[in-house]
């Protein structure tokens, strides 16, 4: 571990890092910060939860000229939630320097954003569509930007944002520094790098595994029709602090969150068809712990950093190995431990091997728990609660009633009755889940042709390849295609 002092960081920023509780730099931070301060173009790849945001944020903030009240840095992120999260982290890092950071994303009142842009922020964090909107309206000028960052670069490529990104970068001076960051850097990123970057250096943190070693990874073979019961049994047995359940499509997410709620779990779903207000309120409730199961699509959870997520359940195996890496990376962050459970249909076994080949790590097989085991798990939870209550030492009020009860029955019978009352017995309330087809053994499509394949996040009707400006006669961006589900996560 390298000390932050040795990386050439300013005293003000060092203070902010201390305030954030960062003591030592992570490997990706140690490797990229000095290079970034020298204005090198970089492609940074490091495991999930290892501090890539600060890796690009610290040098960007230190390179701002605070004499100038103009936008000097821009971060492009694939989803609104991520744009918000990144801007919050940058705000904290820039606290010592009083850096003004503004996030702009779709689904938020554009006039409010225009007003905020007039306050001369130093750094903008945004989603591609809304950034481009402002550029076209001339409400966002990037001519003084010296640092451009593409966070989750591969995801933005997957989502078909390549043309938008090209247009955004075209309005930034060529002498800029361009940085690409993600936990996964599949081959097509190279092409992106060739187009947008100057002699980029690739920084890959040298670890054997793409996934974080602190995440225990299991797979469970289960028939489609039993999956839901098995999920609830695991939730009962493992009793996660917070957990994320991934479903393949938006419909799946809706059905799963409804089904979990019906069975008494505090669960809600998040995906791109929900209103911005709803998405934010669901995330807020999850962070506060007033719901403890978040059901999500792949895209909804990319890059999200929520502390307390102890378990990730891949209710459906992800559609590609990269998504697997990002999904399970919602747990085991910043040195914490985590558990990832992946459910597979027996016909998906060879697909599982493909995922394992990419991550260079085997998942351990776990048997689906039986009803009795689920019940035992629940009992354990109750016993823990009882022990905590005993420790709290505030039982005086109940003493007389307890003694009266023990006059009538022996102590074991009394405790048994209490355990029975407090234990959540398996709930068999019928739920509706539409069946999903198993994943084929081989990728039967090009890796980056994922249109409509991940719950409609692909860019329907979006052109690929060379940039073709999509403008209508009024010169504004044509939003007819953004009506579809595809772009609703921007
Ligand atoms: N040097 C550090 N010391 C302690 N905590 C850190 C340090 N750097 C970052 N963190 C914290 O670690 C967590 C994960 O960081 P971050 O979200 O940047 O990870 P990431 O590498 O971008 O992950 P992902 O690939 O999932 O996007 C955050 O809560 C962040 O504040
Ligand atoms: Mg990140």
UniProtKB/TrEMBL annotation:
Its main location: cytoplasm. Residues 2-30 form the DEAD-box RNA helicase Q domain. Residues 481-490 have a biased composition (Low complexity). Residues 214-374 form the Helicase C-terminal domain. PROSITE patterns: DEAD_ATP_HELICASE, HELICASE_ATP_BIND_1, HELICASE_CTER, Q_MOTIF. It holds the Pfam family Helicase_C. Gene3D superfamilies: P-loop containing nucleotide triphosphate hydrolases. It is found in: Cytoplasm. DEAD-box RNA helicase possibly involved in RNA degradation. Unwinds dsRNA in both 5'- and 3'-directions, has RNA-dependent ATPase activity. Oligomerizes, may be a member of the RNA degradosome. This is DEAD-box ATP-dependent RNA helicase CshA. It comes from Cytobacillus purgationiresistens. The lineage of its organism: Bacteria, Bacillati, Bacillota, Bacilli, Bacillales.
């Amino acid at each position: 571990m390298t000390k932050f002092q040795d990386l050439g960081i300013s005293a003000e920023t060092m203070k902010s890092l201390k305030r954030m509780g960062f003591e030592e730099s992570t490997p990706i931070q140690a490797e990229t910060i000095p290079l970034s301060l020298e204005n090198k173009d970089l492609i940074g790849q490091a495991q999930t939860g290892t501090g890539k945001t600060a890796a690009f944020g610290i040098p960007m903030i230190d390179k701002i000229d605070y004499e100038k009240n103009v936008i000097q840095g821009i971060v492009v992120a694939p989803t609104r939630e991520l744009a918000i999260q990144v801007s919050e982290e940058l705000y904290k890092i820039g606290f010592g320097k009083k850096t003004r950071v503004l996030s702009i994303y779709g689904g938020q009142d554009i006039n409010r954003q225009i007003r905020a842009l007039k306050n001369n922020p130093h750094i903008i964090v945004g989603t591609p569509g809304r950034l481009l909107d402002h550029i076209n309206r001339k409400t966002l000028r990037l001519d003084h930007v010296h640092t451009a960052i593409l966070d989750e670069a591969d995801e933005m490529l997957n989502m078909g944002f390549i043309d938008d990104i090209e247009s955004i970068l075209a309005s930034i001076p060529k002498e800029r520094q361009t940085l690409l960051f993600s936990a996964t850097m599949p081959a097509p990123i190279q092409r992106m790098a060739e187009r947008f970057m100057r002699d980029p250096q690739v920084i890959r943190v040298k670890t054997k595994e793409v996934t974080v070693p602190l995440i225990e990874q299991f797979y469970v073979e289960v028939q489609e029709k039993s999956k839901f019961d098995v999920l609830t049994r695991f939730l009962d047995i493992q009793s996660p602090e917070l957990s994320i359940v991934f479903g393949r499509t938006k419909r799946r997410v809706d059905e799963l969150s409804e089904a979990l709620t019906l069975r008494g779990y505090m669960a809600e779903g998040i995906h791109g068809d929900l209103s911005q207000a709803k998405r934010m309120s669901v995330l807020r409730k999850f962070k506060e712990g007033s719901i403890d199961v978040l059901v999500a699509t792949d895209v909804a959870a990319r890059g999200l950093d929520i502390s307390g997520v102890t378990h990730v359940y891949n209710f459906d195996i992800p559609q590609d190995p990269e998504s697997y890496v990002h999904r399970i990376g919602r747990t085991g962050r910043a040195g914490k431990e985590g558990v990832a459970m992946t459910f597979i249909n027996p016909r998906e076994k060879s697909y599982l091997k493909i995922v394992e080949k990419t991550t260079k790590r085997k998942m351990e097989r776990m048997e689906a728990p039986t009803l009795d085991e689920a019940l035992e798990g629940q009992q354990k939870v109750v016993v823990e609660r009882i022990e905590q209550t005993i420790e709290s030492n505030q039982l005086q009020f109940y003493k007389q009633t307890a003694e009266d009860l023990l006059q009538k029955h022996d102590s074991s019978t009394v405790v048994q009755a209490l355990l029975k009352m407090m234990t959540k017995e398996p709930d068999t309330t019928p739920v509706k889940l539409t069946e999903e087809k198993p994943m084929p053994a081989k990728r039967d499509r090009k890796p980056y042709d994922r249109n409509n394949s991940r719950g409609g996040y692909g860019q329907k009707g979006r052109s690929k390849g060379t940039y073709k400006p999509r403008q209508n006669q009024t010169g504004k961006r044509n939003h007819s295609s953004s009506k579809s589900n595809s772009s609703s996560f921007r």
